[in-house]
Amino acid sequence: MEESTYTFLLRLGDDSLILGQRLSEWCGHGPILEEDIAMTNIALDLIGQATNIYTYAAGLTPDFNDADALAFLRFEHQYLNAILVEQPNGNFADTLVRQFFFDAFRVPLFEHLQDSKDTSLAAIAEKSLKESRYHLKHSSEWVIRLGDGTELSHERAQLAVFDLWRYTQELFHMDTAEQKLLAQDIAPNLENLRGIWLETVETVMEKATLKLPTNQGFFGAGRLGRHSEHMGYILAQMQYMQRAYPGMEW
Amino acid sequence: MSSNEWPLWEVFIRSKQGLNHKHVGSLRAPDAAMALQNARDVYTRRSEGVSIWVMQSALITASDPKESGPMFEPADSKVYRHPTFYDLPDGIEHM
Known about the structure:
The complex is a heterodimer of chains A (250) and B (95).
Chain A: H1 2-24, H2 33-58, H3 67-72, H4 83-86, H5 92-113, H6 119-147, H7 151-164, H8 176-183, H9 190-207, H10 231-244
Chain B: E1 8-14, E2 22-28, H1 32-43, E3 51-56, H2 68-72
Antiparallel strand pairs in B: 1-2, 1-3
């Protein structure tokens, strides 16, 4: 049971950490000051979520002492985030569509995890849910305005939807750990979340005058530690200081 | 202002229940909903508020600084408009 919880926590926390790291790349490069701050806020929310999740996870494993060790001292194949969150920031529409697909998944996930039999997980979910609801509002409003905006913004938003859609299927995959936790009322059935997710996505796509692809996407294996070519670069940048100066603090 | 810049919005924040909304600054946004969202991100990230108002700066009618003489100075010599001529009974605090 502990092993399944540990795996599930890494999948949850790694999604937060890697997307937080990705978003923080926008710091100082946002299209407007307000958006620069908004994206940095969201990045910090996500990294805060990861900290809470890793702190809990570190107590379940003898291999890593604390949240920092989990964040900075694992190898690529030990990260279990979905491939969606490691995709490059691209243009502003790419970033916001990626964020929207993710937020629309995270909100119902945390809603269900609030009632988890695992009280630590339930507490983390309750705190994170408020943040994720705002993230979803932020990304939805932007996707609507980009899609239903100028010809250029529509084109870029549509390309982003076509491009990122293929990575969304992985979010709802029920692996062994999820199956075991479902049986114990610790985690929800992710496959059931897909309907809720799709409803949110379709509502926003309609307002944004954007189309969804009809194909299914493919099965990404990020949850099993097999990542896209982008992941190594993210880790190289993120882990550099701890690798070069082990135990360094500031 | 160039025509492709977003309109300017004034932001008012109420720091806690029972207090008035206070002007805290301004920002640019394409519409009211986004102005509210931006105000939340820019002006309340350190728990500064429980409520936000935004309004387009263009909708404000302001007094003209050049007319501040006739507008405000006549009040300076009317000390009797301040309630400072009363003897306060004992036991009244915060006056």
